[in-house]
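Hi R.,

Quick one: here's the Threonine ammonia-lyase sequence you asked about.
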Amino acid sequence: MDAPRLPSAQDVRDAAERIAGRIKRTPLVHARKLSALTGADIWLKLENLQYTGAFKERGALNKLLTMPDEERGRGVIAASAGNHAQGLARHAQSLDVPATIVMPVTTPDVKVRQTRELGAEVVLFGHDFDEAKAKTAELTKERGLIFVHPFDDPDVIAGQGTVAVEMIEDGPDFDAMIIPIGGGGLMAGMALAANDMSPKTDVIGVQAALFPSMANALDGGARDTGGNTLAEGIAVKEAGQLTREIVRDLVREITLVDERILERALSMLMMEQKLLVEGAGAAGLAAILAEPSRYKSKTVGLVLCGGNIDARLLSMILMRDLARSGRLARLRVQLLDMPGQLVKVATIIANQDGNVIDVGHHRTYSDLPAKMTCMDVTIDTQGQDHLDRILKNLRDEGYEVEIAAY
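And here's the predicted structure, written out as tokens:
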């Protein structure tokens, strides 16, 4: 078989016309608060507002619309537990194309249910993506289905590139676009469009440092790939073959960001811009936070590529961010084991306008002398300066205090 062709900028323009009216043209908003905080002039493309919460719908729809009727009649198949599954299922349903999605048995029930509600047959198989992908290959051959790759397909790449077409048409002249990279479909498609429509714009990729697959593919590096990343949507162990060729030619560089910066970026988008994103969607802002001087006074476009995040994970991230900023703190206070000590500590905190939200008193499980005990106090403050004042007053009253690590 001939090798798949590389898509062109014309393919991206054609895709934009093809999917117009079938895909939400998401807003491009000026992030004034983030701009003030970072020094960059930041514009956000809100792909988290797509029906399924991610940009993946674009490539899936373009692929379906370019397929011959005979192939559509046979049906499509994909291996995915994430945004690609729902994007393909949604648009296959709208076009009356049978869709089968293979998911690992470990996939959360909510994702399985949502994919089924979009009309797809869900096959649960294997305990990880690789096992599910192997089952997909088996079913493709057995049933004569058409496999839709999540990123390494020319029509999928062209569809994803329509994000850049809209940004360039709707926005200012960008000095740079920072684009998340997993397998590289979004990056490759947007790079094609940007190079054609706005050649002076620097196109910069960003990956989670735990999954530097595209960076390794381009520079021959041997960085470790794998781990538990917040940006699971771009946690791809091997970059695409087509996508890496396009990225090599058109992308200036790739920035790697660590987990703490990803957490901070996600929290800032939520707290400052009131925008809910998943970890991958926060990667562009994380790149700016990692190198603020580089983007100072530059007009930068960021793609919030998805907003599908587990509520419990989001809650944990926001609480951790409050702890890092000093607005939430757990203090371990040593005190004599005698009546009235709890009240004295609480009074000192209250006199400094601190709010006690949780108390734990430890007598048995402690290595302190028998007549001593310790108390864990979780407090709500106005920030680091306020927390420092509370600590100073406790210590001035003779209490030994430590802040629990976060």
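The mean pLDDT is 91.

Cheers,
M.
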